[in-house]
Amino acid sequence: MPFIGNQPALSYTSFAKQDFTTSATTSYTLDNPVANANELALFINFVRQEPTTAYTASGTSLTLTSATSASDDMYCVFLGKAVQTVNPPNGSVGASQIADSSIALGKLSATGTKDSTTFLRGDNTFAEAGGGAMELLHTATGSDVSSIDINGYFTSDYDHYKLIYSVYAATNNTDTMVRIMQGGSVITASNYWFAGNAWYYDGTYSQSSNAVGFNTNYIGIASTDNTSNSQYPTTGEMLLSNPLSTSQNTTITTNSIGYNSGAGAGQPPTAIRTWNYAGTYISTTATSGISFGYIGGNINGTIRLYGMKNS
Question: Residue 23 is part of which domain span?
Answer without folding.
Answer: 12-85
